[in-house]
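Inputs:
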Amino acid sequence: MRLGLFLGCSVPVRAQNYEVSVRRVAPRLGIELEDLEGAACCGYPVQSVSRETALVMATRNLALASRRGLDLCVLCSACGGSLMEAAAELEGDEDLRARTNRHLEPEGLSYPGGVKVVHIAEVLAHRVGAARIRDAVERPLEGLRIAVHYGCHYLRPRETHPAGEDPEAPGSIDELVEATGARSVDYPGRLACCGGGILGIHEETALAITRVKLDAVAGAGVDAMVVVCPFCSVMLEGNQKRIEKAAGREYKLPVLYYPQLLGLALGFGAKELGLQLNRIKAKELIARVGA
Amino acid sequence: MGDERPIRESDLDLEFTREVRAEPGGTQLDLCIACGRCTASCPVQAQNASFNPRRIVRMAVLGMAEDVLGSDFVWLCAGCYACRERCPQGVLVTDLMVALKNIAVRRGIVHPSYRAQIAELRKFGRLYEVEAFNKKRSKLGLPPLEDRPEHATSLFESTGLDDLMDGPGEEPR
Ligand code: SF4
Ligand code: SF4
């Protein structure tokens, strides 16, 4: 299975542990990721200022994938949301496509439609499948208790997410976690937002939203939390110490990208999966699985 | 939104309501039955009472342009789509929030956080300078990447974003 790899802005700079773990586990499971030369920002950060400009930015990336005959695989759920929405909007609207493509002409690009945008977790859950992952596991993560954080843009809006998962009762990432031998543990508000969308707008409110999640997960008694978006990680892991200070309590909750957890089960070493870059050290977890 | 003075008809700006309706997020606006599910689903509202999506929807329907566009609460939506998912009337609440921000920008009100992000995009084509990280990337076995400002600047120019941002540069209250 060949897919264009769309890195976006945050992953290659702020989530290299995510990127490196994806690049390790993908080939093991028959996923061939091709770097998309010339790809830039997905447009999401500009949406609030100009929806039109954001759409053109997204379309440019879709056009690059289309030229190579590839579907696009995203690691960031916000990139996914932006590109999926653009793809859906353009698919049914030839006029909009023509108007949008005019802005790409100077670069010799044009988007004819047809590119599918998929999140790496969707690829693993739906195109590879839990059964195949289970077969590939060399080091079952039995005994580990994991809290899954889906994140908003992995699930919503349901209309533009091609995987067709019910955003009110999703199961794909739980299945992926359980395929490694670990247990996915329920907790209150597990589908709620991380707060990341307004970190730059109103920090206090954003961190209060994150705290609700951390408090709920802390009560569930887990070994780690699993995320599939760099922004969720910035909130839940990157800001965890600050929230601890403000809240006057300690979480010490490791937050892993799903491909890092998967990589441990596939037998990779902690360093090969960039676990040394995680801000909340997962030493105990790593020792327990013997990586 | 703490101002409890009654709204007078003369305060209303129906042109604003029309502008909102014409946006992709505004098409379902008039179907709102004020049930409050959006507000009950909103993670921002749960932590910050100044932000209330149902109220914002109603204010948009009524044409309370100044109260909506001039306030900082327009910018507070986290874009989580919980409201849109749960609205029984199919109001595209999240998209409406985007529409309101876009309209605010067209009237010269841009949140400084977005100004800053757009400035970074102009410099690097991405939100962050990536070339500075190539050494670290190569140590991890990751391929090098290039900063390509033109991937953003050319589109900012042709789509008119530059002109939009050149306005008087008011900031939200
Ligand atoms: S959920 Fe929908 S119908 Fe109910 S108040 Fe919000 S926008 Fe109006
Ligand atoms: S999308 Fe915005 S308004 Fe709607 S629930 Fe989320 S934060 Fe609240």
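The mean pLDDT of chain B is 92. Flag for discussion at group meeting.
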